[in-house]
Every structure is written in C-alpha cells, then in structure tokens.
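Appendix C. Worked example: Trypsin-like peptidase domain-containing protein
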Amino acid sequence: MHADVEDAALHAAFVSVLGDRGPVGAGVLVADDLVLTCAHVVNSALGRGQFDQAGPPRDALLRLAFPLVDREREVSARVEPGGWRPPRADAIGRAPVVPGRLAHHGDLAVLRLEGSAPPGAEPAPFQLHDCEREVVALWASGNPVTTIRARPRVVAAPWVALDVVGGVGVSAGYSGGPLWDRARQAVVGLVVAVHEDAQAARARGGAGGHQDRSPAVVYGISLPAIESELPRMPPLRVPAARRGVQQLLAALEGVLTTPASVAQCERWLAARFGFPARDLGTDHARLVRLAVGSRRGVPELIEAARTTLARHSAPDGGAAGSPGEPWERLRRAARIVSPTECLTLDQRRDLAGLLARCRQATPDALLAAVLPYDAEPRALSGLADVIDVLEAYEPTDRQPVPPLLRAVVLVAGEERQTADQLTEDLQAWTERVARRMGVPWAAVCQFQADAADRHAAARAPSAPPPPVDGAGGTAGGRLGRAVPRVQIELLPTGGSTLFTYQIWAWDAGAQPRLVVVQDRDAASTRVVEDIRRVLRTEVREDPETALVEFFVAPEWLGLAIDTWESDEGDEGGAFVPGLTRRLVVRTTTRTRECYAGWKRRTAALASAGRLVFGERYADHKVARANLEVRPDVGTVVLCCDPARHGQLLRQCVQAGVHTVLWHRTDHGEQVGLDLSGVLEGTEPRGVPEAVRLERAKAMAEPGIPTHRGGQLSLLHDPPDHRPPPLAPEPWVLAEPAS
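Step 2, the predicted output written as structure tokens:
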C-alpha cells in the first residue's frame, strides 16, 4: 500500500500548532472540535517557558492549521477547561520539572476549536501501542517528507521509548504529534521528547527545521497515560471494526426489545460519550456504530444495556425475567468485536488508581503467576499494564474466573499484609466487576481461598523455599518481594577511563526510580561514590543486600568493574562494590531475535548444565555451533585466550545465554575447572554471591594463585527487571528552538 493511502487517516487528523515564526509543534484531532497536544507546545506557541505550569489565560488564543487538509486556512482554539495537564516532575503533585534532566509526567493539553475544522478533517482513531509494531511521526509542518519510522524499545513510565529506524534525521519539532501505527491504522501515542546526540545538537546551533541529522530516540506518551491524565476527555475513537458487528447488532436486538429501552440505552451512551441524544431517531444500528467507533465503547454499550434492563430484571443474578441466553449471546458478540477490552472507562480508571497504590506485587511476577506459559515479550512498566494484557484472555472450562480477575485477587492477597483498606477496595472492585461480567462470585471466592492457602504455604517457616520462576516470582503462588537493585547504565566516553551514566534504584516490590543522571565525563571513582550514596539513601537493604548491576554494550563487558573503588576520603574508607555487594554486568543490547532463546535457556538453568569454552572453542563459529546444538544451556564458562573473549561474549549474548563466567587474564584447562568449581552446586540465583565470595578470598589472601577471584567477571542477565533505556545525554524537548 502506498504511504499516502496508509497515512490518509493520519493526514486528516494532523494539526500544526503555530507560533509567531511558524510551527512550534503538532497535535491531533480527537473529536469534531477537540485537539490533543503537549502542554509544552502550547507554552511555546504562547511565548511562555516550556515548563510553565499555570494554565493559559482564558482569552489566550492559539493558532492552528490542518496542513494536509487545507494548507491556507488557520483555526483559532483555546485550552479546554479541565484539559490542562502541565509538565510535572512526579506522578502525584505539581513539583516543577528540572529542564534537561528527567522524563516527566503530564505535559498534555486539550484545545477546543473556536470554529469548525476544515472540510476533510476527521478525528483520528486510537489503539494501544504494540511493542512489536513500527510507527511513524511527522514534523510540526506536516510535510510528508519529514516522516520518520520508529520501533518501540521499552516502556519507561510515563513514556514509551522508540528507536528511529528510517526517514529523515530527528530534530526538535515533533512534539505533540501523533505516533501512527500504519498496520493497524491508529494513533498509539503522542511524541513528547527526543534524545538528541549532543554533537548534532551543538552543530544545529539553535536553528530550527527538520533538516538536522541526529541519532535520536523518540519518546511518546502512551494511550493509557493520556487516558489516565485526562479522565474526563470524551472517549477516543477506534478503527472501524470489521468482524462481529452484525452478530453484535443481532444480539442487541434480542436484549433491547422495545423502543423505550433503545432510547434509554442511547441516553446512557450519550452521557458517557459527550454527544446529544436523539431519542426518537435512535435504533439498534446507531447504538452499535457509536460503540464500535469509541475507545472502550463496546464495554460501555454492554453496561448501558445492563443498566437499562436492571429496572425490570437482574440479568447477572439469574432472577425471574433475566434475558438468559440473549444476554450471553450479547456478551459473546461483544468479545468478538472488542476482544482486547472488557472494562468500561470507569472500571479501568478505578482499578488503575488502586493498583498505583500497591507496593507488594511486581508486574513481571504478576503476569507469570496468572499466565505462566506466556512467552510473548511484554513491555510492562506497572501493574496497570498487566491488566491491559489480561483483558484479552477469556476464562476456561477448568477455571471460570478470567485471568483479569485472578490477577486482582492475587494483588489483593499480597497487599493484605500491609494495607487492609486497600485490599478491601480491591475486593469490592472485583465483586462489582465479576457481577457485571457474569462470573459466579462463588468461583471467585474459591480461587481467592486457594490463592490464600498457597500464599500461606509459601510463607510457612517449615516449608522449603518455593522455586523461583523466570520472572522474579515463585511457583508456589506467592508474588514474592523482589531483590533490591541498583542498576547503572554505563556509557564509556574516554576509552575505559571516563564515563557518562545514569543510576536506577529498584527497591523490593516497588517501581524503578531514576535517581542519578551524569551526562558529563566522570571517572570510575565518581561512579562508585554515586553508587554508595544511592545504597545509603534510596534502597532498603533489609533483609537482603542490593544486587549491583552494570548495563554495558557487549564491547565493554570486559571492563574490570568489580575492582573499582571510591576515594579514601570518606569516613567509612574506600568503598569496593565488587567486594561488599553482588556485582554483575548485563547487556544493553538484548534483541527480539534472541528473546525466545533467552527465556528458553533461563527456564532450563536448573537442569541443563553448562558449556566450557576452552581453546578448542575459541573460534566464534565453533562456539555458536555448540550453542545451537545445546539450545537449553544457559551457563557458559570461558577459559580460552582472553583475546578471544570479546567475540565469544557477543555470541553468547546473541544466542540468549543467561550467565557467563570468565577470568580476564588467565586461561587454560585448569582455569576452566576452577571456574566450573565456583558454579558447582550453586543454584542460578546464587551465582552472584558465589562469585563475590571468590573475589573476597582473592583479596583476603593476595599472592595465592589458586584464588581466581581477583580478575573474575560475571555476566548475569536474567530476562526481568530491565530498566528504561540508556539516555546519558541531556533530554531535549521535541520543540523547535525559538
């Protein structure tokens, strides 16, 4: 399909936000008279500071254009009351943003047109982003020449990071514009920032325009974040449904059998979607068209029909007068039309608010507990993302409770230990939604009791510790607390002596927090000093000390990070994290191609043994062939010539190997035996501690050649707890310089 055809709906909804000297950003038409953009774009258009938090004056008019519909015409607009979400540093509150440092929250604005949009302009359809799908974006002018292609890398709440893979170079000026999924013909988010190469930014010297070349990463605000920030914005449109619409229409006719019930159902939907009700001119087809064209419109239609029938019957309770089979037929048809949505806007919003207060369960562990055999790569930044995944799954004959409700029950059980009131709220939400979904409450109670029994068994002192699953939870039914982590994303800038970096603190059961950004060259002593400060102030090392993880590119895996130490000036003396903490290196370049092997090898760690690559395997082709022959092996020992380590490490990373142990200077058969001895009898999770003890022995008894720990490196890279992407350069908002 030609790009003009693929992007026709994007072009019909694309909006340029104009300043005194031309476009300053973009926006997207979301309703007949509403435009969505970024708050910092509005600030720039009005000549204010990008991070100003006060709403624009009511008389402040913005100039908009629909360049791909009517290039000559401008339209005036004002910020809609209740539609101003200025940039803020934290998820809660109004703390100001520090320019150029961190990802921020909010940064959204809804604009209401003073007149009508030009003929040919149409509101854009929206869908949830897919971490496997490529998207496109346009610069502020809307010129198709500026189209860039990007692929999602990771969800780093509140943003999604996307690697640019094609098109012109990225520069300031894309903010507020829609991220368009050509394959699904839908907007999946708004551009909010770019991460520019510092050299390219200096070369630009403040000039605007899209001509600059820059290896930027594009950052977007996802659809769930938009809906969370703007709860009262009318439901967004979705692509026209192609399957099941006639079934839904026939089923609705079997449930709403009188003109009065149809009119009442339309009044409900009108109030929810913000359009005028027709009453006399309403029919079943109009109700279906309204529902299938809006975000969560089909669940809203089912709720409207249920409410309409509630005056005369109890469809979920089985009372006399229940529609029975017609009602179940309506539910089945709704799942065909809208297979990924079963919650109304309010139900989804209420649950997301409750989950934001939960501190015990982690997203990966929750998904693994509910869907233990799910092998798809998921971009999960919070518990609400798990709910979005689980909405698409139906109950089974053996388990009548759908995975969505099972997940909420498990989270409620975890929170019972510390927050009884929150647990009661989650249980009340589950009861309300189960009734509306037609799930027997007795089945929910039975699952709740079974989960509580498994939870109690997992916590019992006399019971052996349950096996750890691949996502950080346990196979015994408990969503166990995660090990505290300090994660350093390291980018060498001056050989192996100078670095830029950022540090994430990942406390047990909480979400990761970016706590240090160092975008100027720093020596290793500075890195270690920042790690010590983070350990002291940002994580709770009780009862378990933190795991210190360095994320580096494959070519830097050989850095002697475990030998780094701070200056002696501190009152506690020099700090050596490789001696006092479990220190490992991980890679920044795991790809989709190696993801399946990565999970397969990780799942088989306890039983698959290991491979030892001596001189016979020093050729990287031979090593890769052995990895292909043993697709379950996740642990490798290197004891060949250290000059060969770099190539072999890259082969291991590409093949999805979980753990690699090697000595940086010694090699030979005896080294292989010694390193294998370190791993012998050690469960996979205990490898970092075993290596730490070897390093301590080498330091405690210097000069003894049998102690290999002095130059011991460990790549330990499980498929969980990966932080947001490396961004050592300053954040640059995607807005033209003025």
